[in-house]
Amino acid sequence: MRYLILIVALFASAFSFANVDSLPSDKDLGRQYITQLKNGGALIVRLKSRDKNIAAYRNSGNNSIADEMEEKDSVLNRQIMYAFRSQFRFCSVYFMYARNSKKFVEGERNIFLNESFQEDSTIEFNNSFFLYVDFGTALLNESVNSYTYTNKVQEGSTPGNSQSYTVLDANFKQLHSPFPYQTIINNLEQNQHQKAIARLNKKMFQYFVDDKRKQEEANEKKKRRKK
């Protein structure tokens, strides 16, 4: 019996390693994602709003603190939207509040924001592929869990390394290199959000062009070998 258990355990372990080996690499995923983004894909920028905190302060009579938080969120969201609208050209961009992520996952599409930050049912989302973008504190080579939406909603914070724009996959997991998944804010720059998004735009174009060139070179090598 003991030997049978050992054999089953070894088989399960081997099967697990085989599954890991069969998963696409970060390089393969990066190539797939950048191609899909360029060919009919979109970024969904998730804007933050501290509704629960603001409501709690108002309920306790601290309207001045609530007003200050509301104004800070509004200023930041305006900076983010303007930065993308003025600097980003790689693919389509949509905006929604992060609190509506669960609704989006469940299929609702009347949640995208217009330039007045109003949910606008006339904004159509017909893109074949999408990734999310968050602004805030991000981790290096880890998934961001400040907004995790599956069957349950978890809203919290994660210690990180910088204030940055971070690209997440459809499951809200932070992407990895070589995909240009993160652009750090430089607080010494003027118009720091615009310049950060300009860098993100440039990184994506460069990554797309470089990857396409590498694929063409690889195809040429294969052709020469066949000859």
Keywords:
227 residues; elongated; single chain; alpha/beta; 6 helices; two-stranded antiparallel sheet
What structural category characterises the helix and strand content? alpha/beta
Low-confidence stretches: 14-20, 141-161
Radius of gyration over alpha carbons? 22 Å
Tell me the domain tally: 1
- Count of separate DSSP helical elements: 6
In N-to-C order, the SSE pattern is: HHEHHEHEEEEEH
Largest beta sheet: strand ordering: 2-1-3-6-7
General shape: elongated
- Average pLDDT metric: 84
Beta-strand content estimate: 15-25%
The helical percent reads 40-55%
N/C terminus separation: 58 Å
Secondary-structure blueprint:
Blueprint: H1 2-22, H2 26-38, E1 41-47, H3 51-59, H4 63-87, E2 92-97, H5 101-105, E3 129-138, E4 147-149, E5 153-155, E6 162-168, E7 182-184, H6 192-226
Parallel strand pairs: 1-2, 1-3
Antiparallel strand pairs: 3-6, 4-5, 6-7
Helix pairs in contact: 2-6, 3-4, 4-6
Overall description:
This protein has helices at residues 2-22, 26-38, 51-59, 63-87, 101-105, 192-226; strands at 41-47, 92-97, 129-138, 147-149, 153-155, 162-168, 182-184. A hairpin with a 3-residue loop joins strand 4 and strand 5. The chain has 227 residues and is of the alpha/beta class. The chain has one domain. The strands form two sheets. The protein has a five-stranded mixed beta sheet with strand order 2-1-3-6-7. The protein has a two-stranded antiparallel sheet with strand order 4-5.
